[in-house]
Each structure stands twice: as structure tokens, then as C-alpha cells.
Design brief:
By secondary structure, the protein is α/β, with parallel strands linked by helices. The chain has helices at about 15-25, 55-60, 75-85, 95-105, 125-135, 165-175, 215-220, 235-245, 255-265, 305-325, 340-345, and strands spanning about 5-10, 30-35, 45-50, 65-70, 90, 115, 140-150, 175-180, 185, 195-200, 200-205, 225-230, 270-280, 285-295, 300, 305, 330-335. Helices cover about 30% and strands about 30% of the residues. The chain is globular.
């Protein structure tokens, strides 16, 4: 018998968590939310909660079928433990490889779903990449590229920290798993620089950590080359290498994050670029399939939402829907790449990714 999924506790009410809770509420779930500090009113119960207090967290989770963590990655393992012990479904947005590996261990004896990495990258990009790969009889390459950028960049760095600074610094400093020439390996971040053009706009892409989620494990032995890169405006990689390595800011990640956010604070007009491709053989012929999109801010649940916020929130909410609807298993570890793109896009929240968003305009 499938474990029900109706009542959800959302943890963290930042830009993404706030929107996740609202979208799930609009989708018909019974939502409650908790955060360390609550300063906004919501159309559902909200309470202040010290997430680090496992006993208080377990108490808050009682009566809920699932918990959705929109907290910083370092908080997620403790939340996942409480969820597994309580028998509640667990979903998060983490890109941190080590955290995900530890959370995965909890799924071995769990009677509920353990689904980390449900955001944009990792998350949606793996769903797209795997769906492209399924079109081929034999796959040669899978290349996944994602960038969350200011729509109107200024300065040499051409960036704005609309996402967690801790997460971005980790992506730039932690090693990246890839498959190269059939060999699964780890490579350095901020490397393998390439030019990429989307709708006539020249950009650059380079290796960053965590974007592939579990795809290297899934496609090991099935593909010659598999890698993930972050998309940025030209010149960004060289400047970040200078900042993190030549100036030794890699030795103090928290300070690096503070400096970068102070210099490049969030902007309301942001854009998300997605460029995914797969190459392989169909019927004996070598061909290439691509998924290229540009997404912009959009109005949702009564307000204008930044692109990185709604793309991330829509992705995790769609995965929650798929579990509730029985499209995905009701227990155990869920890999994002096992989700079919058509199923994802058929959900209420997944449909936000549909249409033909050429140049950032949604159809």
C-alpha cells in the first residue's frame, strides 16, 4: 500500500522556500511551514522553529506525510534523518555531493521516499538529459549546461548572486564528477572552458560541482562522455579563478561568499539558460538531439518571481506531485534521471517549464 502524500511541512522561507510553500498550497496540498524567523503572513500555518533541534523538528513533523527542505545544504542531513525516523517523505534542493551521499544511506531502510537534488541543477537538467538519451539506441555523449544570470549584466564579472553564495562557492571549489572516454572520474571545477551560443548570444561554460547529481552512476558503462557545466557571460571563469585561487579566497569560503554578495547583490531581472544535448546512434545513423531554453521572471501566486526562484520551486513541486500521483515510487531513493520529461511536464508545476521560451519570452 502506497504511503499517502497530502500534508507537507516546508522548511525554510527564503526566496525559494516561500514560493515552494505557496505553489504546493495552490496545487492542493495541505501545507504548513517553519523557519527560524517568520516575518511574512501566509495562507497556511507557519511557525518559528530551530531546525537544529531534532526533537522540536520531529514534533513539528508529526501529522505530516512529507517534509520539503529549502534550507542551506548543511542543514539537510539532520532534517533527512528526522524524516526517515518519522516515516515521512523527504525532498530537498541540495547540490552538495557529500550531503547527498549521506542522505542516500538513509534510504536503505526507509519506508518513505528520500528524494534530494530536486531543483534546477541538479534536478530538472538531469530529467532533460536522460530523456534526450532515451531517444538513442546507443549514446555517445550527454552534455548538460545551465546558467542563472542577471539579464542586464554590469562589470567584468557579469554576475549577480540570486542563489545561495555558499552553494555557488562550493560549486566553484569542489571537484566535479564526469565520464570521459568511458571512464568515470573526478575533475577540477572552473576548467574545461568552452564557448556556447544560445539564440545568437555568446556565453561561456565551465565545470562546476554537483550539477549531474547521480547521473554518472546511472550512465556508467552506457555513455562515452557525460559532463555538466555552468553557463556564464564571457570572462567570468578567469576572474573567479583569480579571486579564489590566486588571491587564496578558497581558504575562507564564508568570507569569499560575503565579498561576492556585497559586490554583486541579487537582481530582480534574471535569466536562466538551459542547453542540454545528447549524441548517439539511431537506426545506425549518428545524430544529435538538443533541448535549449531561455527562461525569464514570471508572475506566479500573486507576485513577480525571479527566474531562479520559480524554476527551482517548480521543479521540486513537480517531483512532489509525481510521488503523490503514483508516477514515482512511494519509497526509497529517487534519482532525478529516472523521471520522464513528459511526466514532469504533465504536472501542474512542471507545466511552468513548457512552451517555447525563445529569448526569455514564455509562450
Amino acid at each position: 500500500m502506497n504511503k499517502p502524500l497530502d500534508s507537507i511541512l516546508v522548511l525554510g522561507l527564503g526566496k525559494v522556500g516561500h514560493l515552494v510553500a505557496l505553489l504546493l498550497h495552490e496545487t492542493g496540498f495541505k501545507v504548513a511551514a517553519a523557519a527560524l524567523n517568520v516575518t511574512t503572513t501566509f495562507p497556511f500555518p507557519v511557525r518559528e522553529l530551530d531546525i537544529a533541534n531534532a526533537a522540536e523538528l520531529a514534533k513539528a513533523l508529526r501529522g505530516h506525510d512529507a517534509v520539503v527542505s529549502c534550507l542551506p545544504y548543511q542543514c539537510n542531513l539532520g532534517v533527512a534523518r528526522v524524516a526517515a525516523e518519522s516515516g515521512a517523505h523527504y525532498f530537498d534542493l541540495t547540490e552538495d555531493v557529500r550531503t547527498t551521499a549521506e542522505i542516500r544511506q538513509l534510504s536503505r531502510n526507509a519506508g518513505s521516499v528520500i528524494a534530494p537534488q530536486c531543483g534546477l541543477a541538479p534536478g530538472f537538467i538531469a530529467i532533460v538529459g536522460a530523456s534526450l538519451a532515451r531517444k538513442f539506441d546507443r549514446v555517445r555523449n550527454i552534455r548538460l549546461r545551465v546558467g542563472a544570470l542577471p539579464k542586464h549584466p554590469t562589470g567584468l564579472l557579469g554576475y549577480a548572486f540570486n542563489w545561495s553564495p555558499e552553494g555557488v562557492v562550493n560549486e566553484y571549489l569542489n571537484d566535479c564528477e564526469v565520464i570521459e572516454d568511458g571512464v568515470r572520474k573526478w575533475v577540477s571545477p572552473l576548467e574545461w572552458l568552452e564557448k556556447i551560443v544560445i539564440y545568437g548570444l555568446q556565453l561561456e561554460a565551465f565545470t562546476t560541482s554537483g550539477g549531474l547529481g547521480t547521473m554518472c552512476e546511472t550512465f556508467d558503462g552506457q555513455v562515452e562522455n557525460l559532463d555538466y557545466k555552468s553557463i556564464r557571460y564571457p570572462g567570468h571563469a578567469a576572474l573567479m579563478n583569480f579571486f579564489l585561487h590566486e588571491l587564496l579566497m578558497r581558504e575562507d569560503r564564508l568570507a569569499a561568499g560575503r565579498i561576492l554578495v556585497n559586490a554583486k547583490p541579487p537582481v530582480s531581472e534574471d535569466v536562466v539558460y538551459i542547453h542540454a544535448s545528447a549524441e548517439g546512434w539511431m537506426g545506425g545513423s549518428l545524430s544529435r538531439e538538443e533541448f535549449v531554453r531561455v527562461y525569464s521572471p514570471r508572475k506566479l501566486v500573486g507576485g513577480m518571481r525571479r527566474t531562479i526562484a520559480w524554476t527551482t520551486a517548480a521543479s521540486i513541486c513537480a517531483v512532489v506531485e509525481l510521488v503523490r500521483n503514483g508516477v514515482l515510487p512511494s519509497r526509497g531513493f529517487i534519482k532525478q534521471e529516472q523521471i520522464r520529461l513528459d511526466d514532469f511536464l504533465a504536472t501542474r508545476n512542471g507545466r511552468l517549464y513548457a512552451g517555447q521560451p525563445h529569448g526569455g519570452r514564455l509562450a
